[in-house]
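HUMAN: Mind sharing a backbone?

ASSISTANT:
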Amino acid sequence: MATVIKEVLVNAPVQKVYDYWRNFENFPRFMDNIESISMIGPDESHWKMKGPLGKTIEWDAKTTSVQENKKISWQSTEGHIETHGSVTFEEVSPNQTKVTVGLEFTPPAGVIGEVVAKLTSNPEQQLEDDLKRFRNVAESEDFGKATSGTPAVGEGSYTNTASSAQRPDVDGPVVGSGSGVDEKSQTRSTD
């Protein structure tokens, strides 16, 4: 199982940063390989990640914890990728937020596993690139406009739909797509 932890400072208030992140339909705007996220239950979502040669990698995820303006944790429940983790939000100043994403994932075996391995060959760089794109979106004039709609996460329930058509032109792949590591899972190992 691979473990990746990255952080970024965003020049925006913690409430706006948290609200934007908790709305899963925003993820394709900064996570380059996410095709879509669809709601399948009150705290479950179905993820589709684009792979090479037209392959689609899919998994379901369940949100396991929400602390408003502080933390969102989740884990996969089934699909091509086993992944879990969290994102934390720390107010550095009234207009600056530190976002830390940690994730652990195990790609599957077989042909799909080979596709995922190619996509995740440098997971630290991929997560870093996604967070830079997130910062660019969060610091843009359109930041508040993109959070409209039903939030994917909040008051104990999450998930929504996402469309790749909503994504601005951005470069770079994503790994783990919406997963992170919480304190308990940082030491967890799966063979």
Summary: The longest helix spans residues 123-138. The radius of gyration is 15 Å. The beta strands are 2-10, 34-41, 44-50, 56-67, 71-79, 82-93, 96-106.
